[in-house]
Amino acid sequence: MVTTASMLMDNHETFLNTDLSQYEGQWIAIVDKLIVATGASVKEVFEKARKDYPDKRPLIARAPTKRLLILAAGKK
Question: How many structural domains is the chain composed of?
């Protein structure tokens, strides 16, 4: 399995820049900048992605809900 930092960053950018509203609250798997699996459990999604893309490392994340709150702290 070959996964470069560039591939991981590309998949992460896909997660950040894609409208995920249709997957709200579901787990998603992204491989090669494409959403390749969705579902209610992380295990189910991971297994689907690995079955279809055995030589790739999928990015697994939960699609945000409308009630998502992100807090950031920084140094003063």
Answer: 1
